[in-house]
Amino acid sequence: MKVSQRINTQKNVIIIRDEIDRVLNHARIASHSAIHFLEGKCDSATQTDIRKIVATIPDIRTVSLLRGNEIYCSSVFGAQFFRLDAQSTPPLGLSLMDGNALTPYRSLLIYRTEHVGKSVMVGIDGYYLQNKLKTNDRRTDYQMTLNGLTLNAAGQVLTHRNNTASARYFSPVYKYQINANPVVPVSPDVLLKTVWQDEKLGVCLTLLLSALLSTITTKTLSHRNTLLFMLKKALDKNELIPFIQPIVEAESGNTVGGEVLMRWKHPQRGHISPEHFIPLAEQNGLITRITQSGLRQVADTLNSGDIINSRDMTLFFNVSAADFMNHDIIDWCRKFMRKTPFSGWQIGLEITEREPVEDTQLVQTLCEQLDALGVQISIDDFGTGNSNYRYLMQFRPRYIKIDKVFTLGIETDASKEAIVRNIIAIAQDMRCMTIAEGVETASQKVKLAAMGVTHFQGYYFSKPVDMATFFQNTLNTLP
Ligand code: C2E
Ligand code: CA
Ligand code: CA
Fold first, then answer.
1. Separation of CA 295 and ligand 1 centre (Å)
2. Whole-model pTM?
3. In total, how many domains does the chain have?
4. 203 and 174 in one domain?
């Protein structure tokens, strides 16, 4: 192995080890936070508290309290009892599993700690660990080995011993190691050898491959550049148009607001999805123009038409980290309010974790100013990122949005139900309302309402529609 490759491998192993140590620190914190609940009963307050641990500490999937080998309180099943047989009772400390009753095919890491005859069992989703093992290094497979079991980057838990590792690193804190295994190139290698035996064919193939590769690379780059160029032009020409999707109050069934979602219909290329142009705009410093354009266009429409409502309604705008880099957002919100003084429409800002907002003095000042203006904050895509808890402390939101990945399958998927219960518990504790996104069926609506979600959004109620349709429908339904 070349020296540069070896240095690269060692660097990767150290990064992976540090990241996994960080995940395991979260398990330790979760276990420490749960240990004093072992003294009390599994009443609803305790159940809420252990669910809050799951919702607020990154990477944690489950927390369970055990008496001997009996689970008597858990974040997933509340006060239900489960007796584990000797084989499925995890030992004290860390152990790897290739699934459990809840998600039988998904790897899991358990951290179990004991306290006066009882114990706390914290479950970490193997998915988080598996992601840490993925790198750009195509020549090396990175694996985590713990008590004779090995987790690979595909999420499989393997029992065989690994003797081929070119580098092994033990964590200084926890009893596991990271192995780096050189990838043995099988079929392409054999194929090339055969081809090289016929020199002419080999040369032709090499030329063909490099031509193909350069075409693909050029096409990908030029597609990105073209899209970026087109996006700049579209912004100049105001081709990005706000659509609005209604938000419905669970208790009354009334539309109480909407989320503004930008639509881009290119004259030649047709509809271009926000999933493509929003990340591109975020990476290239254009996102603030999109935020400003959305606020301006909605305010102009409210100002020009007779769109006054008798109740307070909120229009939510998506904002990105770049919107919190300076004071412009305050000016744009002020302008919106100045243009629509008597309309009865309020502003909400949805903050996602796609690109994290730093916790700086500037951001704190912005939050205070937004609060003073009456701008409502909503944390978007809650439960899908890592800074959930920090965001709750930082932004003190009025709403928490439950991402559509949790809504899809909520009626049948016990782990999604558990996550949503956790989110609702923490929202209630922080006196926040919850908006469940992606509601597509009546059964999802019924289930989420029974669980205590306060607001809905999704195709079951309406797709995002143009502003004229939204305001017309909303005003028609006002009492
Ligand atoms: P998001 O904030 O999570 O918005 C919700 C997405 O779910 C929207 O996708 C919406 O059309 C879609 N959706 C709503 N109801 C349902 C449903 O019942 N089922 C399913 N499967 N999907 C549903 P859309 O409009 O494609 O937007 C994608 C993302 O682009 C948004 O995700 C948001 O993060 C971003 N985005 C859109 N407009 C803006 C914007 O003006 N500024 C910023 N910063 N981001 C934006
Ligand atoms: Ca959103
Ligand atoms: Ca979402």
1. 16
2. 0.67
3. 3
4. no
